[in-house]
């Protein structure tokens, strides 16, 4: 486990160098080619695609499949409470990341490739930020949850059936993710500069979350939920403050809608319930051993 943790830490360092280096390289070798929109969505439209689903529904269905896949997986593993806690903790972490993305968009005030939304801040690709965060984090999350299973886990009949279904969902998710990212750039929603900036933010957010979780695994107690909750709360409040400070609400209106806030509150509720349940279980276990 120590060697695996060290290898993961080194991989995160490499990813961090890449994530920080990309924007720096773009600034060093600046030019108009970084800001070209592949399609002017006001005057033209993309050609036929090999997946007969429009861009927005494709993204929405891909995200829905991912959540179905993760929730089903959380009900299969032995450590269900931890799986659900970590899943919604990561969701809250990315919510805060996305609020930071809005803040940076407002600060850059780059409206290129915004299509008919004239003047709308579009300086980072939210799609590339989101999918880079998920595609890097999902394998780590799955490995963490599988680590706590019993030795007979893979031999259980219902597990084998569900894993076959999950394999199909994973395949569909990967195809939808790649197609969404391809369309985000090739259909003119973002320039190369905006794509690289969004990807860098997603990678840096992933590294920060993995660093927090590795510190948890390396601690003597193996778990300090209070510390994690404090860090998450500070990140969320800081991100919300940055959003309110830099996003041009007066000119554009709010980018964060009611549905996102309701989902954020629900995720907090689930995380707190999981933490309380874990404490109750640990207390009962200690009392039983005594």
Q: Secondary-structure map with pairings?
A:
Layout: H1 2-28, H2 55-76, H3 80-108, H4 126-146, H5 157-186, H6 192-218, H7 225-246, H8 249-252, H9 258-289
* Structural Rg: 21 Å
Strand and helix order: HHHHHHHHH
Number of helices: 9
Largest sheet: none
Low-confidence stretches: none
Helix content: over 70%
Strand content: under 5%
What structural class do you assign from the helix and strand content? mainly alpha
Shape: globular
* Arithmetic mean of pLDDT: 85
User: Could you tell me the number of beta strands?
Assistant: 0
Distance between the termini: 30 Å
Describe the structure.
It is a single chain. The protein is mainly alpha-helical. The chain is built from nine helices and no strands. The protein has helices at 2-28, 55-76, 80-108, 126-146, 157-186, 192-218, 225-246, 249-252, 258-289. It starts with a helix and ends with a helix.
């Amino acid at each position: 486990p120590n060697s695996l943790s060290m290898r993961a830490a080194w991989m995160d360092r490499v990813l961090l160098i890449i994530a920080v280096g990309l924007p720096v390289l773009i600034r060093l070798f600046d030019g108009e080619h970084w800001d070209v929109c592949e399609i002017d969505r006001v005057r033209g439209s993309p050609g036929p695609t090999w997946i007969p689903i429009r861009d927005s529904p494709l993204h929405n269905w891909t995200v829905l499949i991912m959540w179905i896949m993760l929730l089903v997986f959380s009900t299969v593993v032995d450590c269900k409470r931890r799986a659900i806690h970590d899943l919604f903790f990561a969701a809250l972490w990315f919510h805060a990341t996305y609020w930071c993305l809005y803040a940076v968009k407002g600060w850059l005030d780059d409206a290129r490739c915004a299509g008919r939304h004239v003047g709308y801040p579009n300086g980072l690709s939210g799609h590339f930020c989101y999918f880079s965060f998920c595609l890097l984090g999902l394998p780590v999350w799955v490995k963490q949850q599988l680590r706590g299973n019993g030795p007979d886990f893979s031999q259980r009949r219902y597990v084998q059936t569900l894993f076959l279904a999950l394999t199909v969902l994973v395949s569909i998710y990967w195809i939808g993710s790649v197609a969404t990212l391809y369309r985000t750039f090739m259909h003119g929603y973002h320039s190369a500069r905006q794509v690289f900036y969004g990807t860098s933010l997603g990678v840096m957010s992933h590294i920060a979350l993995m660093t927090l979780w590795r510190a948890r695994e390396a601690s003597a107690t193996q778990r300090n939920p209070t510390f994690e909750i404090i860090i998450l709360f500070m990140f969320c409040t800081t991100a919300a403050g940055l959003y309110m400070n830099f996003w041009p609400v007066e000119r554009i209106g709010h980018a964060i809608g009611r549905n996102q806030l309701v989902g954020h509150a629900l995720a907090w509720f689930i995380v707190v319930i999981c933490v309380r349940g874990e404490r109750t279980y640990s207390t009962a276990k200690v009392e039983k051993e005594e």
